[in-house]
Design goal:
Layout: H1 3-14, E1 18-19, H2 20-31, H3 37-49, E2 53-57, E3 60-63, H4 85-94
Antiparallel strand pairs: 1-3, 2-3
Helix pairs in contact: 1-2
């Protein structure tokens, strides 16, 4: 099992965001590994790079799948419905 898969399972079972230290401890325990600085750092780096996880602030990590779905938005970028200077420049370039 991959370290990020273990962290995912821990969060899924917990059902809510967790402190990164608790998350790492439980993921390492699930994998049967001792907590060493280099191992914890590697798992933390892997979690940062895995799109399934989301940093919630204050050392809390959760799963992106827990975020509410916004109808009509793909989440790929900012809305084009804004009424700002950048939008006006785009309209001028198109005409």
């Amino acid at each position: 099992m991959q370290t990020t898969d273990a962290a995912y399972q821990v969060l899924k079972k917990h059902g809510d965001a967790m402190d990164v230290h608790d998350l790492l401890d439980e993921a390492l325990a699930l994998l049967g590994l001792d907590r060493e600085a280099s191992t914890a750092a590697r798992i933390y780096t892997d979690i940062n790079l895995d799109v399934r996880f989301q940093y919630r602030g204050n050392s809390q990590w959760g799963l992106k799948e827990w975020l509410p779905k916004t109808p009509g938005r793909s989440g790929a970028g900012p809305s084009r419905d804004r009424d700002d200077d950048e939008g006006e420049e785009l309209e001028e370039d198109e005409g």
